[in-house]
Design goal:
The complex is a heterodimer of chains A (about 625) and B (about 260).
Chain A: H1 15-22, H2 28-31, E1 35-39, H3 43-55, E2 58-62, E3 80-81, H4 93-103, H5 110-130, E4 155-156, H6 162-180, E5 183-186, E6 189-197, E7 200-208, E8 214-218, E9 221-224, H7 245-252, E10 257-258, E11 263-269, E12 292-296, E13 313-314, H8 316-320, H9 330-342, E14 354-357, H10 359-365, H11 367-385, E15 394-403, E16 406-407, E17 420-422, H12 440-462, H13 473-491, H14 498-513, H15 519-539, H16 551-575, H17 599-602, E18 604-609, E19 618-623
Parallel strand pairs in A: 1-2, 1-9, 2-5, 9-17
Antiparallel strand pairs in A: 3-4, 6-7, 7-8, 10-16, 10-18, 11-15, 12-13, 12-14, 14-15, 18-19
Helix pairs in contact in A: 3-6, 3-12, 4-5, 5-12, 10-11, 14-15, 14-16, 15-16
Chain B: E1 7-15, E2 24-33, H1 39-52, E3 75-76, E4 79-80, E5 102-106, E6 115-117, E7 120-121, H2 124-131, H3 153-163, H4 170-174, H5 181-192, H6 201-214, H7 225-229, H8 237-251
Parallel strand pairs in B: 1-5
Antiparallel strand pairs in B: 1-2, 3-4, 3-5, 6-7
Classes of the chains: A alpha+beta (about 625), B alpha+beta (about 260).
The complex binds flavin-adenine dinucleotide and FE2/S2 (inorganic) cluster (FES).
Flavin-adenine dinucleotide binds near residues 225, 237 and 238 of chain A.
Chain lengths: ~625, ~260
């Protein structure tokens, strides 16, 4: 397949401006004749649905939770970046662009990233106008904090609940449009397939999670805002319901899946406590502003942290990366933690943990100041571990957190399946091989408030779509396929729960396709996953029926898709014989253990095309061209 | 962890196959519970065992499992979200219980929250209260610079205190009248405390309170149970604020919406 990213011509800084002028517009009176489906109500989906409805489109929005306000975006803690330069510390659109491109290890598309940086400033304005209670200074102006991977202070925040407050802003805008009649919200509805007519996305098939009914919805365009797939690893910081089903079903209908192996491991999460563990809890990266990361110098040192004198502590991030120190980017900080634990210097049960110590900051700033900054995080930590981080250092360990990979999209955020647009974490577009902290919220809202409402108009204005309703035979056919799959899951009547398969897959993915990957490990995983998948389909036990609320069935369907995705991730990781960002191939490292990128062979986005059941996906490469920045070895030393 | 640290718990769980069906409490023994487990992880373990035995697992709502999405919510021994203060069900850990405890687990009970199955209820009425006016009308695109309107820090902080509501519905479940006043008041306070929220302040209070009544939530008689149950410690003072705004709005003559003709 030919990939056309549709990046507009002209100088980087003018591209978006020009493109907005070149986009075809739908006349205001005609907008109400178009229906757009938005799947997902997180930051990306809610902002897109609200904004498109404000423009006059008919919007149908879907989410699997009981309310759109519960989307996983709600859990984001630390903050959102914007190039406001309110601190006068030398920030600019260009610097945010550069930091993001570099942070992504030069594996993202320049034009998209520049647009993101440009739009960032308007997001803050929009959110303030909606009443998002961002942190303020005494003068009444907006406060900022710094975040990993940046040397300026450009992160806006609302205590430790930034995602919650931004999502509530978007959700309230969405509900405002529901009341006005522009949006029909369908909660507890799970999209299980996409319907294409004449090669274009024209609707979706969903299951009503309360009644079990399989139903169709038709539209002129479909927008997926269904989030990331980190839960393929079973344990992650994602909400339990996060899944790949919507993206994967679209992939199977023709949307290319890009860079699936680019996943982010977050360095500061609470370590695993037992095998009943259902998820991992993130301790916001903002903690690294005031916390110092260390382990004992000696392997096997089991003394309580307070008994280890300064001279016998290794503040390894400060030692190895003097200019960024504890604020080194996530991938680097995570690998460094793994490395010290592999050396036997890890702390806590099982030795898979490092200290994040606030003693120095508490001494310098006082406990009250620290409580004001991170109180809710400290409380959360205490509740989970029963330890008081004001007195003893936190124990942290890396955990799967974010997926940079996703459905391939062009500059207009349209996938390779015409009419199907993908926004937020579900697409692959802006973060390359590693995402900087506080940039996902920025991207979700940039896509939803400011990009898709315009680019969708261009699609609708130019596509010349014949009317299609749910009585079209394609809808019947896809409904039958969806029902057949449900029946197959319920009919397997095997011995193992879907959850047990999910755990097994997750463990395999974490070991072979996690923080460090090798050709041997990936090859082994590639042999084991298809066998596990086969066992799943023959031995899974899904209790209950398809015609009522059935959470086991919901989960089983998601696990089935993770089984296919996991295999593709391993293939992508095997094929990419370099180390970049979150993708670390042990064969490709420098003498001191840093990632070795290979720009001559791998400066591209890998886009995979579904080739039918059982056949390996085909690879198409989108070469990445850097006209405005010089590719350099990423150094945070 | 050594085997000795584990506990034997009995749960009595509300089982109800569907919205129209009757329900009853059913007892299950759960041996081998680690104090480090969360309450929901204990239910996960039980559900895995029920599945293995060929029984139907217990349906319960949850998602983030870190106390922020508001999806979880159980009556645990008659207390919304269980025994710990300022803690959602998903953040509750088994170390709050003792070996041999019998724990009763029920769904939220309120006229406005019909049970859908087992421990799962329908809380969409809360969304409709927000839709009736819980927003600032600021369509995308027209906003001035974020620093154009300074917001005094105390106002921002107080607004944030109210905005911390996670919409779980514990306040409704805890209220003897099944009132949604704390939920509604939290939003009215969040937006009404900010300069950006002034233009719609009274109209917002009026329509949200009216919607709350339409949804068959009970009326508020200031029992204060809501504040006790709230995992985010939203203060009942917000209700005083809501009542003030509502009364002022109700006393004003209705504002006629200007007709929007073509321009
Ligand atoms: C703990 C945590 C903290 C974070 N902190 C930060 C931070 O401080 N700063 C930052 O920038 N980023 C942060 N992130 C990342 C960021 O929160 C996410 O990347 C972002 O919110 C994703 O938004 P989204 O709109 O793309 O998707 P989501 O918010 O995940 O929303 C997905 C939506 O899709 C719906 N959905 C999914 N599948 C289906 C289906 N099949 N059918 C119907 N509906 C479906 C869901 O119901 C939901 O509404 C954090 C992430 C985590 C896990
Ligand atoms: S599961 Fe999200 S608050 Fe409990």
């Amino acid at each position: 397949m030919e990939l056309n990213a549709k990046v507009p011509a002209g100088p980087l800084a003018d591209k978006w401006e020009r493109h907005q002028f070149d986009l075809k517009l739908v006349n205001p009176a005609n907008k109400r004749k178009f229906t757009v489906i938005v799947v997902g109500s997180g930051l990306a989906g809610a902002s897109a649905a609200a904004s498109m409805s404000e423009l006059g489109y008919n919007v149908k929005c879907f989410c699997f939770q009981d309310s759109p306000r519960r989307a996983h975006s709600i859990a984001a803690q630390g903050g959102i970046n914007a190039a406001k330069n309110y601190q006068n510390d030398g920030d600019s659109v260009w610097r945010l662009f550069y930091d993001t491109i570099k942070g992504g290890d030069f594996r993202a598309r320049e034009a998209n990233v520049y647009r993101l940086a440009e739009i960032s400033v308007r997001i803050i304005d929009q959110c303030v106008a909606q009443g998002v209670p961002f942190a303020r200074e005494y003068g009444g102006f907006l406060a900022n904090r710094s975040f990993g991977g940046a040397q300026v202070s450009r992160t806006f925040y609302a205590r430790g609940q930034t995602g919650q407050q931004l999502l509530l802003g978007a959700y309230q805008a969405l509900e405002k449009e529901v009341q006005r009649g522009g949006v029909v919200m369908n909660s507890r509805s799970e999209m299980l397939d996409i319907v294409t007519v004449d090669g274009r996305a024209r609707g979706i098939v969903v299951r009503d999670l309360v009644t079990g009914q399989v139903e169709s919805h038709a539209a002129d365009a479909v927008v997926l805002a269904t989030g990331g797939y980190g839960n393929v690893f079973y344990l992650s910081t994602n909400a339990r319901g996060c899944n790949v089903t919507a993206s994967w079903r679209a992939h199977r209908r023709g949307a290319l899946f890009a860079n699936p192996c680019f996943t982010q491991i977050h360095p500061t999460c609470i370590p695993v406590s037992g095998d009943y563990q259902s998820k991992l809890t993130l301790m916001s990266e903002s903690l690294r502003n005031d916390g110092r990361v260390w382990v004992p110098v000696k392997a096997g040192d089991r003394r309580p942290p307070g008994d280890i004198p300064e001279a016998e502590r290794d503040y390894y991030l400060e030692r190895k990366y003097p200019s960024f120190g504890n604020l080194a980017p996530r991938d680097i900080a995570s690998r460094a933690a793994k490395e010290v634990c592999d050396e036997g210097r890890g702390v806590g049960p099982g030795g898979r943990g490092v200290y994040l110590d606030f003693a120095a900051s508490i001494q310098r700033l006082g406990e009250a100041k620290i409580a004001e900054r991170y109180g809710n995080l400290f409380d959360m930590y205490r509740r989970i571990t029963d330890e008081n981080p004001y007195q003893v250092p936190m124990r942290i360990y890396p955990a799967v957190h974010y997926t940079m990979g996703g459905l391939w999209v062009d500059y207009n955020l349209m996938s390779t399946l015409p009419g199907l647009h993908v926004i937020g974490e579900a697409n692959f577009s802006d973060h390359g091989a590693n995402r900087l902290g506080a940039s996902a919220l920025m991207q979700g809202l940039a896509d939803g408030y400011f990009v898709i409402p315009l680019t969708i108009g261009d699609y609708l204005a130019t596509a010349k779509l014949p009317p299609v309703g749910t009585d079209h035979p394609e809808f019947r056919r896809v409904e039958a396929e969806v029902s057949g799959r449900i029946a197959r899951l319920l009919g397997a009547k095997g011995r193992r729960s879907a959850d047990s398969f999910h755990r097994e897959l997750g463990k395999l993915m974490w070991e072979k396709c996690g923080m460090a990957r090798s050709a041997a490990g990936l090859t082994e995983a590639l042999a084991r996953i298809p066998a596990l998948r086969e066992e799943f389909w023959s031995d899974v036990h899904v209790p209950g029926s398809g015609t009522a609320l059935n959470q086991s069935l919901e989960h089983a369907g998601r696990v089935a898709d993770f089984m296919e995705l996991g295999e593709l991730m391993c293939r992508d990781a095997l094929e990419r014989e370099e180390s970049c960002g979150g993708h670390f191939r042990v064969e490709h490292q420098t003498e001191d253990g840093e990632a070795r990128r290979d720009d001559t062979r791998f400066c591209y986005a890998a886009a995979w095309e579904w080739a039918g059941e059982g056949a390996p996906q085909g690879l198409t490469r989108e070469p990445l061209q850097f006209d405005n920045v010089t590719l350099s070895a990423r150094s945070y030393k | 962890m050594s085997h000795d640290d584990t506990m034997q718990i009995t749960v009595r769980v509300w089982r109800q196959p569907g919205p129209a069906a009757g329900g009853a409490l059913v007892s299950y023994d759960v041996p081998g519970v680690s104090p480090e487990m969360s309450f929901l992880e204990m239910l996960d373990v039980l559900n895995e065992r029920l599945t293995e035995r060929g029984e139907l697992p217990i349906a319960f709502d949850h998602d983030c499992r870190e106390g922020i999405c508001g999806m979880c919510g159980l009556m645990i021994n008659g207390v919304a979200h269980g025994p710990e203060k300022a803690t959602t069900t998903c953040q509750l850990h088994m170390r709050s219980f003792r070996n041999g405890d019998v724990i009763t687990v029920e769904p939220w009970r309120a006229t406005a929250f019909p049970v859908l199955a087992d421990l799962v209820v329908d809380r969409r009425a809360l969304d409709r209260i927000i839709a009736s006016g819980g927003f600032i009308s600021a369509p995308t695109g027209g906003a001035p610079d974020g620093n154009a309107i300074p917001v005094p820090k105390p106002a921002a902080d107080q607004a944030m205190d109210a905005a911390a509501c996670i919409g779980c519905g514990a306040c409704v479940a805890a209220c003897p009248n099944g009132s949604a006043s704390l939920f509604t008041a939290a939003k009215i306070s969040h937006l009404g405390l900010l300069p950006q929220g002034q233009a719609e302040r009274f109209r917002r209070a009026l329509s949200m309170v009216q919607q709350m009544d339409l949804e068959h939530f009970g009326s508020c008689t200031l029992y204060g149970e809501c504040q006790e149950a709230c995992p985010k410690e939203i203060s009942i003072d917000t209700i005083t604020r809501m009542n003030g705004d509502f009364l002022r709005a109700a006393a004003q003559p209705p504002v006629r919406e200007a007709a929007t003709g073509s321009i």
